[in-house]
Design goal:
By secondary structure, the chain is an alpha/beta fold. The chain contains 5 helices and 5 strands, in the order E-E-E-H-E-H-E-H-H-H. It has a 5-stranded mixed sheet, sandwiched between helices. Strand 2 and strand 3 form a beta hairpin. Helix 3 packs across helix 5. The two termini are about 15 Å apart. The relative contact order is 0.20. The mean pLDDT is about 90.
C-alpha cells in the first residue's frame, strides 16, 4: 500500500496533450502524449470529443482520484487560447461530473519545481525528465510528469 492512496492524472493541455498518471511518483508512472488534432474530414469539435474519450478511457483503467493540470495565463496565439479554453472547460466539467478534485498549477511553478528555473525552456524540461529516469518523448510529456510530481508534493504538504 502506498502513502498517497490516490491515483493522480496530470495534464499539459493542448492539441498535443501530455499526460502522466500514477499513485506513487517513485513507482510506475504511465505517461505519453494524446494527439487531439482533428482529422482532415473531422469537424472542429472532434478534438474535444477525443479528449473526453481519453479521459473516460484512463479513468476506466486507473480510477482517477485527482487531476492536476498546467494553468496557462498567456498564449502565443488566439487559436492556442481557444483550444486551451475548450480543453479546460471539458476537463473541469468532467471532473465536476465525477466528483474528482482538480487543481491548476502555474507554468512558472512547474518549470521552477522541475528544473530550478522558472523560465526553463522545453529542452531543459525534457532533459530533466530523462535525468530523473522518465523516457519522455517531448516537452508535453515532460511537463505532465513534472505536474504529477508537484501534485504529489501538494498532497504531502496538505497531509
Amino acid at each position: 500500500m502506498n502513502s498517497y492512496k490516490v491515483t493522480i492524472l496530470a495534464l499539459d493541455l493542448g492539441t498535443k496533450c501530455g499526460y502522466a498518471t500514477g499513485d506513487d511518483p517513485h513507482q510506475f508512472v504511465i505517461s505519453g502524449v494524446w494527439d487531439l488534432k482533428p482529422g482532415r474530414f473531422d469537424g472542429g469539435g472532434m478534438r474535444f470529443l477525443k479528449f473526453r474519450q481519453r479521459l473516460n478511457d484512463i479513468h476506466h483503467a486507473a480510477k482517477i482520484g485527482r487531476v492536476a493540470f498546467e494553468e496557462v495565463r498567456r498564449h502565443r496565439g488566439t487559436d492556442a487560447a481557444h483550444v486551451y479554453g475548450g480543453l479546460l472547460a471539458i476537463l473541469t466539467e468532467w471532473c465536476e461530473e465525477k466528483s474528482i478534485p482538480y487543481e491548476g498549477i502555474p507554468v512558472g511553478t512547474i518549470k521552477s519545481f522541475w528544473t530550478g528555473k522558472g523560465n526553463a525552456n522545453k529542452t531543459a524540461m525534457v532533459d530533466e525528465a530523462h535525468r530523473r529516469g522518465f523516457p519522455v518523448i517531448d516537452d508535453n510529456e515532460a511537463d505532465a510528469v513534472a505536474i504529477l510530481h508537484i501534485a504529489f508534493e501538494n498532497i504531502k504538504a496538505s497531509a
